Amino acid sequence: MTTQHKSEADVVLIGAGIMSATLGLLLKELQPNLKIEIFERLDVAAAESSDAWNNAGTGHAAFCELNYTPEKGDGSIDTSKAVKIVEAFEVSRQFWSYLVEKGLLNNPENFIKSVPHMSFVWGEKNTKYLKKRFDALQEFHLFKGMEYSEDPERIKEWAPLIMEGRKGAKKLAATTMRFGTDVNFGELTRSIFRHLETLDGVQLHFNHEVRKLRQYNDGPWRVRVNDLSTGIKKRVKAKFVFIGAGGGSLLLLEKANIPEGAGFGGFPVSGQWLRCTNDELIEKHQAKVYGKAAVGAPPMSVPHIDTRMIDGKKALLFGPYAGFSTKFLKSGSYLDLAKSIKPGNIKPMLGAGISNIPLTKYLIEQVMQSPDDRMKALREYLPDAKKEDWVLETAGQRVQVIKKDKNGKGVLEFGTEVVNAADGSLAVLLGASPGASTAVSIMLDLIGRCFKEELASPEWQAKLKEMIPSYGQKLNENTQLADELRHKTGTILKLKDLTKSSI
């Protein structure tokens, strides 16, 4: 019979990714005496969605991602999501800068670098769209500094590799935002956990899988955990539980059995990258160049030719190519999708499937792609690409959220979704993009839902404003503060000044 260990904690965090790391450190800074226990099923932090090879790593600020600025029926551009995301990324930069300035994180150059963000399109229709998008975003201060051009020579100055071998009179257009970044969220996550482990009252457990969740009548939760390396079973009584287990969060939400989680389902989408092995090509490209997604494609599948810094070395990726797997995690089980289907979410999941036939068709086409098909897609961005310079790598696994709409029908969501118990004792993060880049804002929203009384205290308010100077304000509406904070965070994070419009 296996031994059973019992313990108590103020906070239990499930999953050792960027979300748990961010929430854990925010809470510890706000209330240093909290006892926090973190459980991770794998043997290392940030091995799933937060890992550099699994995560897009752009530092999503909506500078180049065209799916964040859809064209409306009347031809105008909807900028609301882009503005929300750029504000949220500025909040993340402020928090990371605070951590570096206080010595809680070292060597920021290990997790964040300056890399221009570009959008690149071709054809009359797409060119008109990109110009309208550029004009619409110029109304917002945080997008000032973006440049637009239809001049091939100018575009070549920004990203020479995408113009090499490009022939014909096809109309081209591009925007560039030099104030862009590449973020290695795997390294950032591990750095935060290394600091958390030095603090009193924090325990990080690897090879520990949460099996059951049950709420006591008086409010706290009983979390049952198996130590996969020893077989020992543990039971933790926790005042607050956060489930930040990436694709595994849905299954744990169902085990928690809170009314607020009823009807949620998940649609798994896998991905692959083409990784460049030619050092000369890698050095020649210095930008993140995003294009337009195919009809029916999920946002995580927006094609981009992407300069990355991974494990201290410059990399060049193209993709991702979408696929379908019934796993909810890269290291998960093929039974994950089947296990997630419950009486309460069958109808929403079927409804979402019926209303997303283009997505199903797109995924089937992606799964059926040959190596030549993948190279054909790459050559739309790099006309001179050679097959021998690229190898195929498996990317991360994402689970898109399915939930009920107002009519009880299923709708497929492509963002992130926080679900919390009415009493604030448990919260779950579902979904994917832009996730990691906006983790600080997402976790601040969660704190506002689940720690309402503490958040109202003068001590927490003062600390939040110390960590995030723009807390409670909109930077797009306070241009002087926006400029001051961008300069300050850029200096602390050791980012190059790439905001000037001249080369």
UniProtKB/TrEMBL annotation:
The keyword Flavoprotein applies. This is Probable malate:quinone oxidoreductase. One of its GO terms (biological process) is tricarboxylic acid cycle. Its EC number is 1.1.5.4. PANTHER family: L-2-HYDROXYGLUTARATE DEHYDROGENASE, MITOCHONDRIAL (PTHR43104). It comes from Flavobacterium enshiense DK69. Keywords: FAD, Flavoprotein, Oxidoreductase, Tricarboxylic acid cycle. SUPFAM superfamilies: FAD/NAD(P)-binding domain. Its cofactor is FAD. The gene is mqo. The keyword Flavoprotein applies. It catalyses: (S)-malate + a quinone = a quinol + oxaloacetate. Belongs to the MQO family. It comes from the Bacteria. Pathway: Carbohydrate metabolism; tricarboxylic acid cycle; oxaloacetate from (S)-malate (quinone route): step 1/1. GO terms for molecular function: (S)-2-hydroxyglutarate dehydrogenase activity; L-malate dehydrogenase (quinone) activity. HAMAP family: MQO (MF_00212).
